[in-house]
What we know:
three-stranded antiparallel β-sheet; globular; mainly alpha; 6 strands; binds carboxymethyl coenzyme *A; single chain
Amino acid sequence: MSDKKAFLKVDGRDEAIELPIYSGSIGPDVIDVGGLSSQGMFTYDPGFISTAACESQITYIDGDKGVLLHRGYPIEQLAEHSDYLETCYLLLYGELPSTQQKAEFENTVRYHTMVHDQLTSFFHAFRRDAHPMAIMCGVVGALSAFYHDSLDIADERHREIAAFRLVAKMPTLAAMSYKFSIGQPFMYPDNNLSYAENFLHMMFGTPCEDSVVNPVLAKAMDRIFLLHADHEQNASTSTVRLAGSSGANPFACIAAGIAALWGPSHGGANEAVLNMLEEIGDVSHIEEFVARAKDKDDPFRLMGFGHRVYKNFDPRAKVMKESADEVLAELGIDNDPLLAIAKRLEEIALEDEYFIEKKLYPNVDFYSGIILKAIGIPTSMFTVIFAVGRTVGWIAHWHEMISGSYRIGRPRQLYTGYKQRDYKPLDQR
Ligand code: CMC
């Protein structure tokens, strides 16, 4: 915090309103406008373009420089040297684990991977063609009906157990939602496998034969989880914080986060990228779609391009592109028509004046969609996988909020509706 102040001069008022300014450890200063309501005014910032909704120590992003730090560590270093579960530990506890802490954490997550057997009946109540994100919204919220012993949000140990359960069970639930859609039996987790291997085993294994997980694909999967682990106060994380601010239990809050993630402007973009590539259909149609993306009167946007915060490049996209190249080389895929469209689209968008001027670069979802498709994961599961990876970020933010001082989130509005008017009886309308 600092002694700096801002002074707001308002037409018609003699005295400027004094507002405190706070400095973070890095990043822009923030003006505390909390006192304005007592002066009869609100601030107006739809989409939270300039509004910090909380104080946090978890993740820092500098969108102009393409920097993403988790607890101070650059995402590129974590992607290169760490793994998903170690990054989970870092996000949850604030420091990298010692060898013993790492082993204990992995063990704890491993032994929470199974879900309550009765939960399986929830899946059977859905239509076979239900979108897996619809299933995830339901079953994750339903966890609160199964794990009553970790619902007391005032108890730190309960919060910790809820975190273990969510991180551990999300891949199991995700794979179950896929298995249900194709009519195959659910696979139990295999606790001898790593987090990512286990997920691929539950997705692609069957009880009829031993499943063998390709280590290159498992590494890419782990990286996808890691690169999605947290991203500061995005729409779904803010939703989790807002839901949590009312005192709701963690499973319900994460279900709210999953719902917010689903939209195509957020986590749904990786699915939308593949749908768009299919709609484009052939490299010869790319120009036409690029022209549509640039046309102000056409709502079409190039999915997987642009970001609210990153205006230079998305550091996650750089690492994800490396993984995409590794996976395609491992699988010997070099003539996939959709991948050919993706590559050409990337080239065109990077050269095109419109995209350069508006700073629209391929984002993380552009490349993750390509990897997931190559691994054989169906498009409808892409956002579910994002949700699996992001769960730890949601819980870390929820925990940070609950363990500090917080108030219920209650935004205000600029009201432009009718002023007060009198009720008219039916025969006078
Ligand atoms: N294709 C074409 N034009 C675009 C695109 C795009 N993908 N993205 C932004 N623009 C244009 C937009 O039309 C606007 O133009 P103008 O200034 O002339 O009105 C300008 O760029 C700024 O766009 P904006 O909508 O004001 O920017 P935003 O910060 O509100 O939106 C975004 C960010 C990610 C929602 C948007 O870029 C978008 O819709 N991208 C496609 C969806 C996508 O890939 N989303 C995944 C984001 S990364 C994963 C995640 O964090 O969830």
